[in-house]
Amino acid sequence: MKLLVGYTAEERGAEAIELASALVASTPDASLHIAIVLPAAAPFSAVYPGGDHGYSTILSAQVDQWAKHALTLVPEGIQASVVARSVSSVAEGLISLAQQVDADGIVLGGRKRHRAGFFMPGAIANALLHSSPVSVFMSSPTAIETLRAANGKLTRLTAFVGDRPGAKDVIELSAQIATACAVPLRVATLVLPYDVQDPDRDLDAHVQATSDYLSQLTASMELDATIDVVVGRNLDEATGQLSWQDGDLALLGSARLAAARRLFIGPKAQRILGKLSVPMGVIPNPGSGN
Amino acid sequence: MSQDLRQDSNPAAAETGLHEKGLSKGTVGVMGLVVIGISSIAPAYTLTAGLGATVAEVGTSLPAILLAGFLPMLLVALGYRELNNAMPDSGTSFTWATRAFGPMIGWMGGWGLVAATVIVLSNLAAVAVDFFYILLAQLTGHDEIAELTTNLWINIPTTLIFIAVAAFISYRGMNATKVFQYGLVAFQVAVLLLFAVMSFTSNQPFDRTPITLEMFNPAGVESFSAFAAGISLSIFVFWGWDVTLTMNEETTDPKKVPGRGATWTVLLIMALYVAVSLGVLYWAGVGTTGLGAGNPENQESIFAVLSGPVMGPLALLMSLAILSSSAASLQSTMVSPARTLLAMGYYKALPTSFAKISPRFMSPSVATFVTAAAAAVFYVVTRLVSENALWDTITALGLMICFYYGLTALACVWYFRAELFSSARNVIFKFLAPLIGGVVLLVLFFATAFESMDPDYGSGSNIGGVGMVFILGVGVLLLGVVVMIYMRITQPSFFKGETIKTYKPIK
């Protein structure tokens, strides 16, 4: 597997490399492309007085130093290279680099930010989550802690699915990643009371039906996956019900309004992302007729 | 700006820097360059800040001095262009002067540039704050709001907030876009022209002064010291123009665009300055009472006083033009000293922490905050000790510009000493132009510095019988000498020439 790491020379960059390394570690042809993006030249905000002041020379020396350091963070056995590029938009630059090197996904290190109780990915992660043609993986310090507790190795993939059409695609893509990473797959579904008309009467049956449906689906795909159906009064509570182990990675699908083979995170997925404390990935819409 | 480093390939590849500027293709045409040039000059700001102080020195010869002040600027800028072409990657007085004259003079060149920009930052912030309150007063119709700026308890905190916001924006690496610059420049020019037209068509000028040809005669200035002070102030009003000459790769045609852009910029700016200064002279005269341009009360910010009586309710536009131009310049000028401080840290002329670059925003971190802090401290000190802080800082700024410009011009002559006479072109651009420009500016520097010891110089503020401008200007330079000696003792490698080699021509 080949991943593009959006790297900044500080903890979040190091965390991104840590997550990316864990993802590719046991895959064939493991390689990381570490991208350092620089702002594009903006001639209309001319630096005055004195022009450039030698800034581009000093910046390039600094980037060389950062690049060398980034390579030392990659474990043995994983091929790694650094690319530094000026881009007018960080997210667009990362996407075009990922396409250029034919990467299977983009990895970012991030910080969780809560605004009015809502999880807000950073501006760059947010842009990627709404436009990337490849999977986007994100870490946070607490997520990296759980990965470290598993000696930096992935131990399981958890794919979040709904009971709507599209679940199959998410399971399929997740299974491919799980196979590549040689880890077991868990398929998780959150059931909320308002999924059924009369919760008191129908909820248990609905949970059972969902569980059966997913078992049949995975069986028909010849997958060996555990099924986990959790119930909660709301999305947050349901997400909280799910048990996690060290080395878990959560995968979510794109919203259905995503363009074919693009990523577009829905409000529900965004809500779930905010509750998770394991590394997570969002996988693109596979596209119809494909 | 693209590079690849591979772990499994030749490690020497890591040494290849990003030496291209990362500009795929130049996008700036003549028109764009004129806009960049005018926005760097920020005419609405420079006129309000510089016009009054210049009138105080030269009276009705204002237009002549404005035009004459451009000459040394032109001569020095030609030398700048040669240095910029020879060392495009270093592009600053600090490295240029170090390469030419060695570490000590180079250090002072860097200090001079940083000091000049820190002074102008504090002045920009002050002007922005003044017009912020004037604009609020005009918008709300409560004249007393404009007076808030004279209350130090309100003025100083507001100014510090303006400086902090500008520093934050420049730290985050946010850049002005093309549309923004075009809009800002068009607005400034339009409002200034409107002011000139309205002052000539006014029914009741305050002190109608007929326009005479004598106003364009530089020899009409009474004394050499007034002439010197006037010129050093008018260099300030053209400060920014030389950016048009040093832009090369950014332009669509590096052979033609910079020359044409620079010419059009200076023609437009001169026309604008002449129109506005004649308008001010015609409407207000140089009398020292009431609304006269010679009244010391009016000199620290001429448009703050005149735009209301001249433009009536449209004065609102003038306040907006000056506020936007000074606030935009505050942010863009912040980048310059931060980068010079960063370079000085990187080459170990200052503590190495100054060389820190933010990995997220790719901008100087420590250097940006030191710049902002220095501008804030300079502002607070000047505001507290001077009766007329804006006026004194502008005069001290003229002094500082003369110092580092003059030094850099001479660095050009000395740097190219082996090839000065190898062609007619070199004789003009590498020898005569920078030599004359540099000598003129340094003479102006010493003349103004000497004059400014007089306690009555400038606004007339003084400490212990020594003029405020001298204390601000020369004091800051002497502070630089102290810091330099301290750095030489604690961190000698730069001063031993280990980080930047002094250039020696091959015989």
Name the descriptors.
heterodimer; A: alpha/beta; Rossmann fold; 10-stranded mixed sheet; 9 helices; 12 strands; 23% strand; elongated; B: mainly alpha; 18 helices; 3 strands; globular
Biggest interface, which chains? A-B, 44 and 66 residues
At CATH's second level, what is the architecture of chain B? Up-down Bundle
Structural class by helix and strand composition of chain B:
mainly alpha
For this structure, what is the CATH class of chain B? Mainly Alpha
- Helix % of chain B is 55-70%
Put simply, the count of helices of chain A is 9
CATH architecture label name of the domain at 1-150 in chain A: 3-Layer(aba) Sandwich
Look at the structure and give the CATH class of the domain at 1-150 in chain A: Alpha Beta
Major sheet: arrangement of strands of chain A? 3-2-1-4-7-12-11-8-9-10
Overall 3D form of chain B: globular
Q: Which band does the percent of strand residues of chain A land in? A: 15-25%
Secondary-structure map with pairings?
The complex is a heterodimer of chains A (290) and B (507).
Chain A: E1 2-6, H1 11-24, E2 31-39, H2 55-72, E3 79-87, H3 90-100, E4 105-109, E5 113-115, E6 118-120, H4 123-129, E7 135-139, H5 141-149, E8 156-160, H6 167-181, E9 185-191, H7 199-220, E10 225-231, H8 235-241, E11 248-253, H9 267-275, E12 280-283
Parallel strand pairs in A: 1-2, 1-4, 2-3, 4-7, 8-9, 8-11, 9-10, 11-12
Antiparallel strand pairs in A: 5-6, 7-12
Chain B: E1 2-6, H1 30-41, H2 43-58, H3 62-86, H4 93-101, H5 103-140, H6 144-147, H7 152-171, H8 178-201, H9 224-238, H10 243-246, H11 257-284, H12 296-299, H13 302-311, H14 315-346, H15 366-385, H16 389-415, H17 424-451, E2 462-463, E3 466-467, H18 468-490
Antiparallel strand pairs in B: 2-3
